[in-house]
Amino acid sequence: MFPTVRPRRLRRHSKLRDLVRETTLTPNDLILPLFIRHGEGEEVPITSMPGHRQLTVDKLPQEIKEIESLGIPGVILFGIPEHKDAVGSDAYSDEGIIQQAVRAIKATGSDLLVITDVCFCEFTDHGHCGIINDKTGVMDVDNDATLEILQKEALSHAQAGADLIAPSGMMDGMIAALREVLDENDFSHLPIMSYAAKYSSGFYGPFRDAAESTPQFGDRATYQMDPANGNEALREVDLDVLEGADILMVKPALSYLDIIHRVKEAHPELPLAAYNVSGEYSMVKAAAANGWVDEQRVALEMLTSMKRAGADMILTYFSKDAARWLSD
Ligand code: PBG
């Protein structure tokens, strides 16, 4: 008799399919990015990311209530300051847009996890992730000068009440520098989620509109990773582990499922996050708007595949939609 092995037997009954399902996705896996703008009483739609908008601080309490009611455990904040300058000083000002937003969320009494993105690209007038100079003969982001302002930024986020900080600038020594400044200032309890393997990716396009952070010259290839490299991601990750990262992240997610898998295999002892970035979201939205794909189905399939690859949590613009779909 042929075939003797019949995998289809386990697929016949829907309840049996439920029992043998290997990967589950729940609202509890999701982190929602929010864009906070200066000003008052405004919601500015982000055209390239349907369903998302820049919110002013006074609009946050309402938004937070909705997010909590959906069972989403955390948010990550990105800021659009009123003034940008060469060193991104709003990023480390106690009156900066992020610091105000964190305090406003905490003032609601919500216990939502508040994560802050620690970077400079939204705050500098040139749009790069740190201080620019030509010390080495090439116009570039000065690694060690940037570490100093990153320390100021992280400390001021901690003082404002952030629960988890997420440095995304891909500077060398970044995690060690931040761990040091937090520990020296009574924040040894504050965890760091490192954007450990962050690629120089075209998939960030819509985010740069949303956060008004497109580089005014050049690109980020001297600090973010080459999409062609996989082994190098493990090197970046190992360094961050040694420097004390508490949670690792791979970004983007969809084109980097192999990296998610390899990082999880190399460091099963650490929680791993995947960032389902703006371009990945907007592609689905655009295709769905044209009737070319079933949005719910492909979005949940993408998120599930990130978990299957090894992610423990996912930062995604689909968080609210996915939480609704999953609870239906
Ligand atoms: C940098 C940062 C970026 C994103 C998150 N943090 C943009 C970049 O590196 O240009 C992109 C997220 C997305 O595309 O959804 N602060």
TrEMBL record:
A Gene Ontology cellular-component term: cytosol
Keyword Magnesium listed: yes
Residue positions binding Zn(2+): 119, 121, 129
One Pfam family recorded for the sequence: ALAD
Domain of life: Bacteria
Keyword annotations from UniProtKB, A to Z: Heme biosynthesis, Lyase, Magnesium, Metal-binding, Porphyrin biosynthesis, Zinc
EC number: 4.2.1.24
Molecular function GO labels: porphobilinogen synthase activity; zinc ion binding
Subunit structure: Homooctamer.
Protein name: Delta-aminolevulinic acid dehydratase
